[in-house]
Amino acid sequence: MDAVAAKLDAAALNAFLAGAFPEADPMLMPKVVEVAAGRVLVRQAFASRALRPGGLISGPFQMAIADTAAYALVLAHIGEVAMAVTTSLTIHFLRGAKPGELFAEATLLKLGRRIATADVLIWTESRERAAARATVAYAIP
Length: 141
Known about the structure:
The chain has helices at residues 10-20, 59-78, and strands at residues 31-36, 39-44, 85-93, 102-111, 115-123, 132-139. It is an alpha+beta fold. The two termini are 22 Å apart. The mean pLDDT is 94.
């Protein structure tokens, strides 16, 4: 896909997310750390509540950061449209996510008038040792 210029930067996205989800604990809210044409990088601080038995980061926690990264990606490219909503999320768990900061890099696969589709890579140790990969679609109102 040709690179689409971003309309919002990381600071604007973080401010929007904080306002859109006022009940969320600011220390536990994922943060957008980079925005580029067709791409965002999100970081989630480590929280022991994210661990599953066995000491790995749970699947639902990884799914949440995948969804957040895709939402941030879509908003970065269409602007502040709060009612863009997830229509599908498919995730493949590739290896256990060791405890630590969780990262999600979302890349725009397609930005249509009604649907946006993103590829999201998730890791803790290094990008080269991805823990999961998700495909997320968002409906654009």
